[in-house]
Amino acid sequence: MNTKLFVGNLPFSLEESDLQELFSESGSVSSVHIALDKDSGRKRGFAFVEMETEDGAKEAISALNNHSISGRQIFVKSLQRQIEISRLISEPKRRYFDTMKSTGERLAKLRVY
């Protein structure tokens, strides 16, 4: 299991220090990063937390998944699982676009200018 966690449905008022404090109850925290919008600089409602040990990550998931903070029920997942899911979703799309690209190249060769 990975020690990197994805934390979603966060209240926008939550700060990185608040998350650090919350997750430190489950174990030592290496880093906390709340995602910000590139254009506006506002918080996007999710964060990445890295725990120092796998046991700490497992404890954080079991203790904080579906935990309520400021009226919002957060969810905590292993980041590795999120990456695997996104690969499963994006792989068929990638194959489709690769097929379309090769079809387009074949059609371009057939065109007479």
Walk me through this protein's architecture.
46% of the residues lie in helices and 27% in strands. The radius of gyration is 20 Å and the shape is globular. The strands form two sheets. Strands 2-3-1-6 form a four-stranded antiparallel β-sheet. The model has no long low-confidence stretch (mean pLDDT 82). With 113 residues, it is an alpha+beta fold.
What structural keywords apply?
113 residues; alpha+beta; four-stranded antiparallel β-sheet; two-stranded antiparallel sheet; 46% helix; 27% strand
- Strand coverage percent: 25-35%
The largest sheet has its strands arranged as 2-3-1-6
By DSSP (H or I, 4+ residues per run), the number of helices equals 3
> Average pLDDT across residues?
82
Let me know the number of strands: 6
Q: Spans of 5+ residues with little confidence (pLDDT < 50)?
A: none
Helix percent band: 40-55%
What is the 3D shape?
Answer: globular
Over all CA atoms, what is the radius of gyration? 20 Å
Report the oligomer. single chain
Report the structural category.
Answer: alpha+beta
Outline the biggest β-sheet: 4 strands, antiparallel
Give the helices and strands as they follow along the chain.
EHEEHEEEH
Instruction: Measure the end-to-end span.
Output: 56 Å
Secondary structure elements and pairings:
Blueprint: E1 4-8, H1 16-24, E2 29-36, E3 43-51, H2 54-64, E4 68-69, E5 72-73, E6 75-78, H3 79-110
Antiparallel strand pairs: 1-3, 1-6, 2-3, 4-5
Short description:
This protein is of the alpha+beta class. The chain has helices at residues 16-24, 54-64, 79-110; strands spanning 4-8, 29-36, 43-51, 68-69, 72-73, 75-78.
